[in-house]
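Anyone up for a design puzzle?
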């Protein structure tokens, strides 16, 4: 099933929501990946970047710097859609909110500083209303 690619439709139907919990980015060795406890992993030449809950990272002794909140855009966006990431990144940047984006097959996921999660959600909801 192909996702939506029309930018106007995507923006009007973002339906962002805030996932529960606190999340962190870590770099781990290949043997350390536990798919049951990681949200995302990506192989880089320096190691494997993962996103996991803060609690899991602490239990595993993983090193991390910052705590993030995880926002999901409910709209089923096409991986071929043009402009969606730019549109929400620009809206967040105007409010000085950093975002780290992961595109899944069905949805886009945005990680923002935990201290800015509520404001980021409001920005995304306003973007959908505009």
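Challenge accepted. My sequence:
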């Amino acid at each position: 099933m192909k996702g939506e690619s029309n930018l106007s439709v995507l923006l009007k139907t973002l339906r962002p929501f805030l996932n529960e919990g606190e999340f962190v980015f870590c770099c781990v060795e290949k043997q350390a990946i536990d798919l049951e406890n990681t949200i995302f992993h990506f192989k880089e030449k320096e190691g494997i970047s993962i996103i996991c809950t803060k609690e899991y990272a602490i239990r595993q002794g993983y090193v991390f710097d910052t705590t993030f909140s995880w926002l999901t855009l409910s709209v089923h966006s096409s991986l071929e859609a043009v402009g969606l990431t730019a549109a929400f990144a620009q809206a967040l940047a105007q409010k000085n909110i950093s975002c780290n984006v992961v595109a899944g097959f069905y949805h886009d996921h945005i990680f923002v500083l935990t201290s800015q999660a509520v404001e980021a959600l409001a920005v995304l909801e306003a973007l959908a209303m505009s």
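A detail worth pointing out: The radius of gyration is 15 Å.
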